[in-house]
Amino acid sequence: ALIAESSDANSHGRSFGFHRALDTLGAVIGPLIALMLMSASQSNYRLVFALAIIPGLIGVGLLIAFVRERRVSEDHTPLPRFTWNSLNPQFRIFLIVSALFALGNSSDAFLILRAQDLGFSSVPVILLYTAFNLTYALCSVPAGLVSDRIGPRRVLLVGFVLFAMVYAAFGWIDDRRLLWVLFPAYGLYMALTEGVGKAFIASLVPARQRGTAFGVYQMALGLCTFAASMAAGLLWEQVGVAAPFVFGAVMSVLAALLFALLLRRLPQAATINS
């Protein structure tokens, strides 16, 4: 909500992409520093976690010192009621599509488990995850710029389809070398959906409802991801390691088809500024 408030309505994609790029760049640098510290300290996990406090405190300090939000006029206007029927129809649809997609998008921990299942030890797994985050960081701003130019819905649709392809491949491959392609491809999917999805929401919801809208969106995704992870664990143990990834791919295809169908029936979203 703070990013949407601080950026121009025509550049939400760029702003959210820039945020995701810097956030994820930290997720690239952090593990590499951790690897060096682990090597220098003979795998002293306590030291690594203790030192991780430092950048967190710096971030809080920067937030307090430099980030300012716009003052809300004190006109005693009652807060808008946040009901299902009061929401933009496109936001309701996007929420339903996102929830359906999230039911197949289990925790990323399963990607790490899959890499270990194919024979990777802890250090190569960290490097794989770093490759994922590096791709995510590098592609987030370009994805945001593209969404500003052609609209976020088309970019999101491409992301859903890419997720289906990557997840299906995670389930069926038996050559672990292919993971060096799949993890970056998964990072590209994240770049096409994470920041772009939030930019889409910012364009659909009135400014005074954005905080609640993002909260509802994250709540829906969190609950569905929890259910997806529970289901993935059961599928992994009861059916096989490929099952959770195939299930995720199928759910993503269903979400993409629903999204594409509704794209034709609804007009392009008009940005709402108030």
Structural account:
With 274 residues, this protein is mostly helical. The protein is 75% helix and 0% strand. It contains eleven helices and no strands. α2 runs antiparallel to α7 and α8 runs antiparallel to α9. The radius of gyration is 20 Å and the shape is globular. The two termini are 13 Å apart.
Topology of helices and strands:
Elements: H1 2-5, H2 12-40, H3 45-51, H4 53-66, H5 89-102, H6 109-117, H7 122-150, H8 152-172, H9 179-204, H10 210-238, H11 243-265
Summarize the structure.
By secondary structure, this protein is mainly alpha-helical.
Features:
274 residues, mainly alpha, 75% helix, disordered C terminus, 11 helices
Shape: globular
Helix content: over 70%
Query: Which assembly state applies to the chains in this document?
Result: single chain
Mean pLDDT: 88
Strand content of the residues, in percent? under 5%
N- and C-termini, Cα separation: 13 Å
The computed structural class is: mainly alpha
Largest sheet: none
Number of helices: 11
* Number of β-strand runs: 0
Radius of gyration: 20 Å
Order of helices and strands: HHHHHHHHHHH
What are the low-pLDDT stretches, counting only 5+ consecutive residues below 50?
Answer: 269-274
